[in-house]
């Protein structure tokens, strides 16, 4: 009985702690100092339609890129088994359709995870680049920053809203992913 109660208390404590960790992910907010920004991919629906999570990321990216015209952007995301296009190609098209010049956009279309998004995007950066801006949904930024830092990158962020319709599911899943990342490292 006591062991079961202790396990429940530990699980609740970890749930709360991981939630607080995720809240910290939205800082430091980007201010245009980084010359490169990486937009992390998310689900693409049939016909190349960005999921609401991805659309929110792209809207934030467009706004930021228009505010800071010197910033170059890497759109990062491969093609999942249930996607008919790469996430990067959908993001590229979205940015172009919203007034971002092609010369400012680099596509990374091999990645299948957040870690690969960052690893493969880093390969596309000039060697001397250490400071980057990451765009993702608010719940996802803590883990993205942690992974970027393991790759020797300094990070500031642009936080996109998480769609209310999937917020509870995504935040629960992200807690598990964040704990796994802290334990395994990626």
Can you give a write-up of this model?
The structure is a single chain. The protein is 48% helix and 17% strand. The chain has helices spanning 2-24, 52-67, 87-97, 114-124, 141-150, 167-184, and strands at residues 36-40, 44-45, 49-50, 72-76, 105-108, 131-137, 154-160. A five-stranded parallel β-sheet has the order 5-4-1-6-7. Strand 2 (44-45) and strand 3 (49-50) form a beta hairpin. 36% of the residues are buried. The mean pLDDT is 94.
What does the largest sheet look like?
A: 5 strands, parallel
What is the N-to-C succession of helices and strands?
HEEEHEHEHEHEH
State the end-to-end distance.
35 Å
- Count of extended strands: 7
Quick one: CATH superfamily? HUPs
Radius of gyration: 17 Å
Number of domains: 1
Strand order of the largest sheet: 5-4-1-6-7
- Name the average pLDDT: 94
Shape call: globular
List keywords for this structure.
186 residues, alpha/beta, Rossmann fold, 6 helices
Compile the SSE list and pairings.
Blueprint: H1 2-24, E1 36-40, E2 44-45, E3 49-50, H2 52-67, E4 72-76, H3 87-97, E5 105-108, H4 114-124, E6 131-137, H5 141-150, E7 154-160, H6 167-184
């Amino acid at each position: 009985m006591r062991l079961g109660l202790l396990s429940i208390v530990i699980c609740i404590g970890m749930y709360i702690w991981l939630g607080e960790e995720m809240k910290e992910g939205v800082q430091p907010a980007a201010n245009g100092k980084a010359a490169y920004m990486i937009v992390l991919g998310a689900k693409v629906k049939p016909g190349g339609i960005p999921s609401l999570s991805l659309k929110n990321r792209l809207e934030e990216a467009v706004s930021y890129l228009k505010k800071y015209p010197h910033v170059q952007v890497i759109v990062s995301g491969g093609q999942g088994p249930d996607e008919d296009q790469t996430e990067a190609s959908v993001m590229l098209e979205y940015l172009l359709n919203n007034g971002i010049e092609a010369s400012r956009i680099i596509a990374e279309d091999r990645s299948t995870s957040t870690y690969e998004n960052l690893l493969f995007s880093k390969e596309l950066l000039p060697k001397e680049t250490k400071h980057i801006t990451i765009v993702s949904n608010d719940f996802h930024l803590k883990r993205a920053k942690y992974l970027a830092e393991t790759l020797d990158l300094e990070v500031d962020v642009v936080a996109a809203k998480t769609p209310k319709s999937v917020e509870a599911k995504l935040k629960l899943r992200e807690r598990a992913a964040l704990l796994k990342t802290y334990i395994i490292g990626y």
